[in-house]
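Subject: design request, 458 residues
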């Protein structure tokens, strides 16, 4: 039994003081008590502010290795997502299975140190560099699971189906060959990934990810939706104007419009990016129970555009955040970037605040709720029977000193950074202590070795 005492904690009903959280050996919360003095608590861990830790709902772990290497302009007049993608494909060819594992473990460690407890890995690298499958088709899925075993992160693994280079059915080429599979091959990948996840702690989960409408033929999408009933189902959609135009030309409908006309989109779905939506498409997602998976730092980096978060939330929508390209893994900054994008578009302040909740509080509440739903994870609140996904902030750090309640959250998100993160538990596993991952030295050493190899190969 793990027993944590917090000066203050954000519970489902709001803030409470002198809180004890008891965590069972299975990683779930078995008891939450309020108004318990520190000495009376007899707790093994004493923390300042205890919060439910969110899930990072969208990650391509391998892309962490190219962070900072794509900031030069290409040969054209403007650089876009599409030119960035070509750089990514060239970089991808150097990855070995061991490098995939070592980079993923480092990424997961950074997520934990930032305050996330879980990672949803949108995993689409399946093959060798020339497109030849490994002897074990799920070799690289197993590597992601092995990384999670090392880092202790709560993992939801999403093998990605990727079949075509566009809606015209053109074959994959170049770097895309590492993603390629047909439905039979993909079923073998999923079976192996499921076996790998079964070897992790019980909070690990498996889902399915059709990559996008560009990469998945319409008939195959129906097969994928039926492949793992009830499991998380994630898909990129409406990220780029070029994608919207291609879908509109091919299907005679916009991406989200077509998806909702052809599939029953509900709470198991997480639609990633959703940057370019019509008003009707936005309302369809908001009322469906699906999660809008936003990646504000990556979307800013790629020049994607601005998601209409204010109207979406007012319509009852659910959202969460992910680090996507992992150019920078910073939970507080993802939330700050989301809010600031709304301010730049609408030209006024505190756009996502309400009369009842400050801007930081509403952002945090939404990110925790949406991340848990997207991960298919019994978390998202400090309550009995939930996984003990917990993050403790250091109330003595300069930005938070003397603050409490929603104001403390505002200060962390808008004035501070993830250095305020002191402790993290992922399903009861104490993975960050004193602001540092418990296995940082070993994970960092393996990452440095992987990066040396990768950069030498470019």
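Subject: RE: design request

Done. Sequence follows.
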């Amino acid at each position: 039994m793990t027993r944590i005492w917090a000066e203050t904690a954000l519970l489902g009903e709001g803030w409470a003081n002198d809180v004890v959280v008891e965590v069972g050996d299975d990683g779930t919360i078995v008891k939450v008590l309020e108004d318990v003095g520190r000495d009376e608590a007899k707790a093994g861990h004493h923390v300042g502010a205890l919060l439910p830790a969110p899930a990072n709902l969208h990650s391509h772990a391998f892309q962490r290795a190219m962070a900072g290497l794509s900031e030069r302009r290409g040969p054209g007049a403007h650089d876009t997502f599409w030119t960035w993608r070509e750089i990514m494909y060239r970089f991808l060819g150097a990855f070995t299975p061991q490098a995939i594992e070592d980079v993923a473990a480092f990424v997961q460690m950074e997520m934990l140190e930032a305050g996330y407890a879980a990672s949803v890995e949108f995993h689409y690298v399946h093959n060798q560099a020339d497109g030849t499958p490994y002897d074990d088709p799920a070799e690289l899925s197993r590597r992601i699971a092995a990384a999670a075993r090392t880092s202790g992160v709560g993992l939801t693994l999403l093998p990605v189906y990727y079949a075509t280079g566009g809606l015209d059915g053109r074959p994959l080429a170049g770097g895309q060959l590492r993603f390629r599979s047909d439905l039979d091959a993909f079923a073998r990948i999923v079976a192996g990934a499921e076996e790998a996840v079964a070897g992790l702690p019980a909070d690990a989960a498996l889902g399915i990810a059709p990559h996008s409408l560009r990469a998945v033929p319409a008939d195959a999408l129906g097969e994928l939706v039926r492949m793992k009933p009830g499991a998380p189902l994630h898909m990129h959609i409406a990220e780029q104007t070029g994608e919207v135009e291609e879908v509109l030309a091919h299907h005679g409908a916009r991406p989200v419009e077509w998806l909702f006309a052809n599939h029953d989109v509900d709470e198991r779905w997480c639609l990633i990016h959703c940057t370019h939506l019509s008003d009707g498409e936005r309302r369809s997602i908001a009322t469906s129970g699906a999660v809008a998976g936003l990646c504000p730092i990556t979307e800013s980096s790629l020049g994607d555009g601005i998601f209409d978060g204010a109207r979406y939330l007012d319509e009852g929508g659910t959202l969460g955040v992910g680090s996507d390209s992992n150019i920078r893994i910073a939970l507080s900054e993802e939330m700050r970037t989301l809010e600031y994008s709304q301010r730049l578009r609408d030209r006024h302040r505190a756009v996502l605040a309400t009369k009842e909740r400050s801007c930081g509080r509403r952002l945090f509440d939404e990110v925790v709720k949406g991340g848990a739903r997207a991960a298919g994870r019994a978390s998202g609140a400090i309550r009995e029977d939930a996984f003990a996904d917990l993050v403790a902030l250091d109330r003595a750090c300069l930005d938070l000193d003397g603050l409490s309640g929603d104001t403390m959250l505002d200060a962390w998100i808008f004035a501070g950074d993830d250095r305020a993160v002191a402790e993290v538990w992922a399903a009861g596993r104490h993975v960050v202590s004193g602001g540092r991952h418990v296995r940082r030295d070993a994970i960092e050493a393996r990452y440095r070795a992987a990066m040396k190899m990768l950069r030498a190969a470019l």
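The two ends are 49 Å apart (CA to CA).
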